[in-house]
Structure formats: structure tokens, C-alpha cells
Amino acid sequence: MDPLKQRCCESASAGDNGGVTSGATSRVTRNDVAAGARGTSGDSELSGASYDASGSPGANLPALRGHNAALVLGLLRAAGERGVSRLELAAATGLTPQAVSKITARLRADGLADEAGRRASTGGKPPTVLRLVPGARHAIGLHLERDELTAVLADLAGDPVAVRRAPLAFEDGADRVLTTVEREVAALRDGAGGPPVLGVGVACPGPLDHTAGVLHRVTGAPQWDGFPLRDALADRLGLPVVLDKDTNAAALGLAQGIRVRGTGEGVGADEHTGTEEAGGADDGRGLPPGSGSFAYLHLGTGLGAGLVLGGGLYRGRRTGAGEFGHQVVQLDGPECGCGKRGCIEALCLTAVVRGDLAEAARLLGVGAANLVELLDIDRVLLGGRTVLDHPEGFADGVARVLADHARIRGGSAVPVMLAPGGARAVADGAAQLVLAPLFGPRHPALAASREAVG
Ligand SMILES: [Zn+2]
């Protein structure tokens, strides 16, 4: 029994990734977005009775059903523009060529894959190459911060097609926040010409119950305690919704190794209300495959961590893992919004407010070193608005503490880097809450065969 494996959610079996809120006979497959999603009758292909009945977001999309289809879809995504032949798919998945042909026929019938010419012959008949059609379906990622909403429309490859930002007052409570979200999601979809949307991933400050889709006592916004945000949003939006912590969404996106095109920052739009057209060349900022175990530390208006252990997102049994900011590092220290004293979040944010960034970075480094000591992770990634305001200062400050830690303990220091994706890392990752389960699990053997294929 490996408890970590049990709770790794990237593979998204229903038990790992939360429950489906309705449906009598959950025919749960590994590619269930439904995992923690709740659908309603609406205009999504994944919503309505068939979604609820099967527990699968792909209920109306036969091509998205089943573990093997997810594996094939994952290989198509990994191969990118170059594409992959049916024989290569068979070799990489261990499926028979006939089974692969059946799956790819269904994917093509649903418009998810198409033929991309023929590969140069190495003797026999040149094989036909298939590739993913990224624009065939989309997912929406929402990042609800205490004072701002970021909404991303991502294609199947995880690339952003459109981005919007709007002011948000999280402490104003549910009704006003839901109204803002509804308006921005509608504008996002309209602005992109109303493409088919599979579902909505919502990332917000923790703590929360990912499985039930319910918020807990968010520091500074206690009125949200117990609010069923997932179901309320599913009702408003008419789409399946998955709820997770901001830190988990970002970590999932990073674990997927998504490659974000363009910076998406301030491109042709007002900072707070406009629509940004994401574009530009692929800058390859995604993490390399097989990045193993890492911690994503998010310092914005709060402080939290997303943990990827052995390649999978670790949420914990009650999906409460990663409350990094509320570890006590100073007994009887200053009061924290959570009710305790001496939390690292309170100390760190206080240092930021008084302009002592070196001290804030040092505190973040101490927390990072504690994580390294506990979990033996491979790297530390930094993100969140406060870090991005002073990226070098935080990266250097944390690196210094980790170097000191390594010197005392022996061995080399765990590397620190800014998380790829910049200010959009959480919103992009939120879209992955919907997309990742469609593409099958990533385990080392498959990753290796993908590289052989790609
Ligand atoms: Zn606290």
C-alpha cells in the first residue's frame, strides 16, 4: 500500500479526484473529468442526463470514453504537430493495431484527431500520421483571487485561446462573486466565438474540500465557510465544474508540463477588464517531462503550497494538503488570520507590507527548507503575485536558505526557479483540472514510450 500513490490525483480515478455528485451507476473510468466535477443541464456536451448517469464527462462523446482512449489521446497530444502513426500508438500503448484503429476512428469521428499526411517510408507502405486537433474542444480555467478574477479559455493542448481579467472582491460573498464569474465566463466564450467547452476548473484560496466542492474557512473571508461553490457555479454556468485550491491547480498544470504560448501579460488589453489575445511563439517554458517531485509555493495575498510527489498531485485524504502558510514557525508570534500565532504566512506578509523583502524571502526559504527536509523533493517552484512583483529577490533569497540548509545537511542544494506560466500559472492549471484526466495518467513507462514516439 502506497498512500501517496493512492492519493495522487493526476491519474484522476474517481476516488482520487473527488466524487461525482449525482448519478446512480458510476461507470468510472480513469479518464473521468467527472472526478470531482458536477454537471448540470446546460450547453456543454458533457452536461445533462448522460453526464450524470455515467459519471463521465465524455458521456456524449464516445471517443473520450475509456482508459485506452485516454492513453491514445495523451500520445497524440504529446506528439504535437508531428503526429504519430497507428503502429507507433500500438507499440506505445501495448494495444493491438485493431484496437488502436477503432479508437482513432472514434476520435476522428468526433473531430478530436485528424490525418496529418504520411511519414517517409522506411521500406513498406508509408504510414499515415494522426494528430490531435487542439481546437476541437476547450476548457475554462478560473483563478479566483481575493481581489481579482483571471479567466482562461484553453484548447485541448492546454494552450490559452483567450484570457480575461476582472476585479473581484472575494470578501463580498457568494452572490456578487458568482455574478462576476458568470459575466466574465460569458464574455470569454462570446469573445472566442462560442467554441465547445468541456467544463470549468475553478481555483481559489484554501482550505477547501475538493471532493465535495465546498469551501472551508478561507483566511480573511470566513463567510465562505461551508459554501458549495462547485455546485453553485455549475448551476450558474450550466457546465460541469471542478473546484480545487489555487496552489493545487498550478501544481497540476506544472506537472502536466504544459507549454504556455506567449506571456499573456498586458497584451493588447486593459490590465483589469480587457480580453487578452494570447499568442506568440511557443517559448518552451513548460517543465521537462518526468520532473518527479516538487513543491509549488504561491505567495500572493496568502501563502500556500501545491505538492507533486512522484509525478502526481498530492491532495491528502481530506484534500487539505498544502496548507503551507499556516505552519507555525514562531511560537507566540503575531496573530494570524487563521486564529493561530506565528504562522509563516502572517510573518511573511507582514515583512512584505513593511517593505522588508529580504526577510520575506528568508521566511519563504525557511518554509521551503522544511518541505525539502520532510519530503525530499527535487525542486521548488515559486509563483504568485507577490513573488512576481520581485522575482529575483524571492528566488535568490529562497535559494540562499536552501543552500545553507544543504551545507549543514550535506549534499547539493535543491534548485529553485520561478514557476513557468507567470501570473497565469493558476488559471492555466485550473483548465487542466478539466483537461488532464482526458489524457490518461502519466507514469514513467508511458512517458518513456511517449518520448520514443514523439
Ligand atoms: Zn495561520
Automatic annotation (TrEMBL):
InterPro entries: ATPase_NBD, ROK, ROK_cs, WH-like_DNA-bd_sf, WH_DNA-bd_sf. Residues 1-57, 263-285 are annotated as: Disordered. It comes from the Bacteria. Coiled coil: none annotated. It holds the Pfam family ROK. Belongs to the ROK (NagC/XylR) family. This is HTH marR-type domain-containing protein. It comes from Streptomyces gilvosporeus.
